[in-house]
Design goal:
By secondary structure, this protein is an alpha/beta fold. Helices cover about 50% and strands about 20% of the residues. The protein has one domain: Nucleotidyltransferase, domain 5 (2-Layer Sandwich), CATH 3.30.420.10. A hairpin with a 2-residue loop joins strand 1 and strand 2. The protein has 7 helices and 5 strands, in the order βββααβααβααα. The chain starts with a strand and ends with a helix. The longest helix is centred in the middle third of the chain and has 31 residues.
Length: about 200
């Protein structure tokens, strides 16, 4: 890899953590240079992995305080986690120039948190949005160009960005992890594809 190779990060969020893949250019033949799990929930806060579930059934003010505490903590963890990745890659002459984040369906959630807490389906949706949002905010905090792609559209978007057909992209994403060894699951493959979209967007 040449000095100061350009790198983008790909992220797929879960409840309390995210899969991260770092992809180095050129975008025509990228290489995975890092793969790790980012912790996004503080184990010292009870229920922090699923804060909306934890807040369900609590008194309104108590629920609001818990959600605010978990949100602040997760945002700090995401910022610190991404900053550590960027710094460690910089020490290896890799310059992070962008970040791709897999997004949800894009359906708007109610603004009233108590309306969310009254619906189990909305609770699940809100937690997913929370963790995706902390990743987007962390990337922006580090002045990275953040590219959001809805997960259900990732193959189509990656195809447009790279000029490669879907089956070839899936095969390449699977092959890229072989040199690293396990784990190389769907999380890492999808994170690789969204990182590839972000890399292609940077030329």
């Amino acid at each position: 890899m040449t000095a100061s190779a350009r790198v983008t990060l790909g992220l797929r969020a879960h409840s309390g953590w995210a899969a991260l893949v770092a992809l180095a250019g050129p975008s025509a033949s990228p290489t995975v240079v890092d793969r790790r799990r980012l912790e996004l929930a503080d184990a010292a806060i009870e229920g922090s992995k699923q804060p909306y579930h934890e807040a369900e059934g609590k008194k309104p003010k108590e629920a609001e305080r818990l959600l605010a505490r978990c949100m602040d903590s997760s945002r700090a963890l995401a910022r610190d986690g991404l900053r550590a990745v960027v710094d460690q890659l910089a020490a290896r002459d890799h310059r992070v120039v962008g970040c791709g984040v897999l997004l949800g369906s894009g359906r708007a959630l109610p603004e009233d948190v108590h309306q969310i807490l009254a619906s189990h389906a909305l609770i699940h949706a809100a937690e997913g949005e929370m963790y995706r949002d902390v990743l987007v905010r962390a990337g922006e905090h580090l002045s990275l160009r953040v590219t959001g792609v809805r997960e259900r559209e990732i193959l189509a978007r990656a195809g447009e960005a790279t000029g490669r057909p879907g089956p070839e992209l899936q095969r390449r994403a699977a092959e890229m992890g072989r040199a690293l060894g396990p784990p190389w699951r769907q999380d890492e493959k999808l994170a690789t594809l969204v990182a590839w979209v972000a890399l292609a967007a940077r030329g």
